[in-house]
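Input record (one chain):
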Amino acid sequence: MIGLLSVELNRFRSRRAIALLVLASVLAAVAFVGATAWNTRPLTAADRADAAAQADLEGLRPDLLQEVRTCRASPKDFLGPDATADDCRAALVPSVESYYPREPLKLSAVLTKEGMGLALIVIVLMVIAGCTFTGADWSSGSMATQLVFEPRRTRVWLAKAAAVMLSCGLVAVVVLSGYWLAMGALAQARDIAMPSAHVSGVAWHVVRAVALAMGAGLGGFALTMIFRHTVATLALLFVYSVGGEIAVNLLPFEGSGRWSVGNNVLGWLAPHHRYLDATIVCTPGERCSSMQVMTHLEAGTFLGILLLVAVAASVLWFRRRDV
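The corresponding structure, as predicted from the sequence alone:
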């Protein structure tokens, strides 16, 4: 089994299309690092002066000045029972910071935006890698030759699946860890503190993203072993990802957003994923909300069941169908 796995790993590595997908993952990480560094670069003196000028100009608006005067006459009506007249201007007039053209680097903010975007790109590329790895064997006819040397189909399937999972996991670990190490180095260079809670959140995000990339690659491989064509599998996944989201929102019962693949993927990756479930209609006075929370356990269970169904069907189909 080890020898067969080694052969499949070499076959995965030698695929030119897969090499391009890996390169695309690395380039995406580099682009995200550059974009994040540029969009969070420190403010210049000109940026601060421009923000101060805009704040001063906004503070001279007649309607705003009138609102401040009204607030000072009755601050408790405007700002609450503990408010004083001195609090009115700070509460109603925009501060200089609100006119800054960009936010400073924060790992928590990067995690929910750029970090999530990069993880999704890597996962999608690993799905394509899993599809094209076995799709090339079917299109070239080499699958029949491989079964001549190893007729036990289950062993062949398992070796290929293990090669896909290990390779996709390795790519995801290198790309995502490299991105976050670059973010850590950038924060250190700018003397930005990194709370341990944020570092822990990033580490767990990488672990979940790597696990999902491995599962996504395995799922793409399993489906392609059924359809025996890369394009057919990718077309099916595209139709399912688009049409499935529409179908979920049209289901005639409340809470159907729970079964959306997109919501579950984000629920698995994001630290605290909240989504709008349009199928939940709240009447006035009723204690309910259309905003729902997706936990990691719920999302992982849903995605894991989908993966197990695809794997079981793929193994059975490969064992029984003629090659």
